[in-house]
Design goal:
Blueprint lengths: L10 H11 L3 H6 L7 H4 L3 H16 L15 E2 L34 H17 L8 H26 L22 H18 L14 H16 L9 H4 L15 H16 L17 H9 L7 E5 L6 H6 L2 H5 L11 E2 L1 H6 L13 H5 L7 H6 E2 L25 E4 L4 E4 L19 E2 L21 E5 H14 L3 H14 L11 H15 L6 H7 L3 H4 L4 E9 L18 E6 L18 H6 L10
Parallel strand pairs: 5-9
Antiparallel strand pairs: 1-3, 2-8, 4-7, 5-6, 9-10
Helix pairs in contact: 1-4, 4-5, 4-6, 5-6, 6-7, 6-8, 7-8, 8-10, 8-17, 10-17, 17-18, 17-19, 18-19
Length: 618
């Protein structure tokens, strides 16, 4: 397995343990316990490991937090500070809205100051590491490779959010000049890829023993493939990004201003191929049998800790209060009928994009599909979406009597006069925990450990990892580059590998050009739902207006002339056939302004550095 274990939340604990083990009182006197000094860090290999672990934490943040990237695009909605203003493109140089405010500001690490803090830590590491005495050369080589990767990843975040940014590789002192102009987008991409090339040279392909699980060469090459894919995309292509550069006095900050687009796509293709050529990774259960439960294959994979598909994983190891709250996706995401908080509820736009089992498109205008919209859908639908009547885990004691059948309840039961009799326990019309009921008529189960406790407790937080890079992305990155290069046959081959694993039929061999591109983008949306891909894809493809608009939800009703005593009859059957209505989600209207393809540089940063140029529209 190629994975990475993040110790970021354990840094203070590790340091405390290290210091407590030291017998020498002189050593203890060198470093205050509250904040370890540079003298201590750069003389102790274990403290350097802890220092680097903090860079990990700052770089990757909290992917299982109360708010996630899926809530800031057309995948899901959260109940906590519902992202309304951000999703109307109302961000300004003074306020990023719900992105960095509210009860759960987990997205804040994806912004200017936190990522530059990370860059500074990496720069400090490089300024000190060669002077550390008596360290193992193999260890030093490996740890350098990790920090080259992490500095590149931090700059990748910055460039994806802001375009060209100042490239800083030294630690600044109080007497230094902090006025630094932004580098061009092209210069930033060249720097990031050079960092990753260096990381790949330093990092091993695999580890054994106690070192198994450290960041590898494959992770560096996978990040390079992603960086070059983004760089080749429409957002940075001067022949396609006029909606971004219109009015810009410095278009070189938003993308390329010269060069050949096909050359950039070729570089992206080659970078993905370099990961494939390692022959270290493969799709998990890539050729399911006719009798295999493909949906269960996906559920098992996303709740596993070991797979040949994994390239970069983030394991959760909550030690502090912050840790347990941010690593409880079951508590944060599961239905209110499980005493959970009902966040990341999928919009109908995502749910409806899952195909039928035969590969055809789901359509609410199809009378057969409208009557039973959740029948005969593709396997990834059942592995991801919790819908009305879906089988799920046993209820907790508090709601067991309301649902002895363990089936999701998001609807309402009415009498024939139109009076509501009973609301589903997983809706906002039930009798318990209604404030945490979802707004869309759906919930998600993807990446939620089915054995993880859902109640509000600091114990037993989820240890299932978040997958930052997996081999499926590498294959689809390769396919996308092939499409843009006109290599349609090659592209279909790799898209079909993903579809075969999902139990879906191959794409029609006649698909090419724009039609194939549309099919590819659909495949990527489904395969990577909730994996922090869609937010960036919408921007790099310049499809903001398609993703930020009035979303839809499903309403579920049962109408009966009987005296309903529960949401279902005692035998488990429903009070008649459900009536499904696809409705606009008007209390969460969304809108798009083209300025939102990039973030604004905050005013306090502009005031600190008079050489910075603001992004267009701000």
């Amino acid at each position: 397995m190629k994975k990475i274990i993040f110790y970021g939340m354990m840094v203070l604990l590790i340091i405390t343990q290290i210091l407590s083990c030291k017998k020498d009182k002189e050593f203890l006197n060198l470093s205050p316990l509250g904040e370890y000094s540079e003298i201590a860090v750069w003389k102790d290999q274990a403290l350097i490991e802890a220092f680097v672990s903090n860079i990990y934490k700052n770089c990757f943040g909290w992917p299982f937090g109360m708010k996630r990237l899926s809530d800031f695009v057309d995948e899901s909605r959260t109940n906590w500070s519902v992202t309304i203003n951000f999703n109307k493109s109302l961000i300004t140089p003074d306020n990023l809205q719900e992105w960095s405010s509210g009860y759960a500001p987990q997205m804040n690490h994806f912004s200017w100051a936190p990522q530059y803090k990370n860059v500074r830590l990496a720069n400090m590491f490089f300024s000190k590491i060669d002077g550390v005495p008596d360290v193992d050369a193999t260890w030093q080589k490996r740890i350098k490779g990790e920090v080259y990767f992490l500095r590149a990843m931090s700059y990748h975040h910055l460039v994806s959010l802001y375009g060209g940014v100042p490239l800083i590789t030294k630690v600044y002192g109080l007497s230094d000049d902090f006025a630094i102009p932004r580098n061009t987008y092209e210069e930033c991409i060249n720097f990031i890829t050079s960092q990753l090339d260096t990381a790949a040279l330093l990092l091993p392909e695999t580890y054994t023993g106690d070192l198994q699980g450290r960041i590898t060469k494959g992770a560096a090459l996978a990040l390079k493939a992603r960086v070059l894919l983004y760089a080749a995309s429409d957002l940075h292509n001067p022949s396609k990004n006029s909606v971004v550069t219109l009015g810009s006095t410095n278009p070189e900050l938003q993308g390329y201003v010269g060069g050949d687009a096909l050359t950039r796509w070729r570089a992206a293709k080659d970078a993905a191929k370099a990961v494939m050529d390692l022959t270290l990774y493969d799709l998990n259960q890539k050729n399911p049998g006719l009798t295999d439960n493909v949906a269960q294959n996906f559920i098992d994979y996303f709740n596993s800790k070991v797979s040949s598909e994994d390239i970069l994983l983030q394991y959760q190891n909550p030690v502090t209060d912050e840790g347990w709250l941010l690593y409880r996706p079951a508590l944060a995401t599961m239905p209110n009928g499980y005493n959970s908080w009902g966040n990341q509820t999928p919009f109908s736009e995502l749910v409806d994009d899952y195909e039928m089992k035969d590969g055809s498109k789901f359509d609410w205008n199809n009378p057969v599909q409208k009557v039973n919209p959740y029948a005969n859908r593709e396997a990834r639908f059942y592995a991801t979406i919790l819908y009305e009547g879906a089988d799920y885990r046993p209820r907790p004691d508090a709601t067991k009597a309301l649902d002895p059948f363990n089936k999701i309840q998001v609807g309402r039961v009415y009498n024939t006069q139109g009076t509501m009799l009973i609301g589903g326990v997983d809706s906002r019309y039930g009798t318990i925990n209604v404030a945490n009921g979802g707004f869309t008529g759906y919930y998600t189960q993807k990446m939620i450990d089915p054995n993880s406790p859902m109640q509000f407790t600091s114990q037993d937080a989820q240890t299932v990892p978040f997958r930052h890079f997996r081999y499926a992305e590498v294959l689809l990155n390769y396919a996308e580059a092939c499409i843009e290069l006109g290599e349609d046959n090659e592209a279909r081959t790799y898209i079909n590998m993903i579809r075969t694993r999902a139990g879906q039929p191959d794409l029609d061999a006649s698909l090419s050009g724009d039609v194939l591109r549309k099919a590819y983008r659909h495949e990527r949306r489904i395969e990577f739902a909730y994996e922090n891909q869609r937010f960036w894809d919408v921007r790099r493809w310049l499809v903001g207006p398609e993703a930020y608009k009035t979303m839809h939800k499903v309403d579920v009703k049962y109408i009966t002339n009987e005296a309903a005593t529960g949401y279902r009859r005692p035998d488990g059957s429903t009070w008649g056939d459900p009536i499904f209505t696809n409705e606009e989600s008007l209390d969460d209207n969304r809108a798009w302004l083209d300025k939102a393809y990039f973030f604004p540089i905050m005013r306090d940063e502009m005031n600190k550095n008079n050489k910075l140029v603001q992004n267009p529209g701000y």
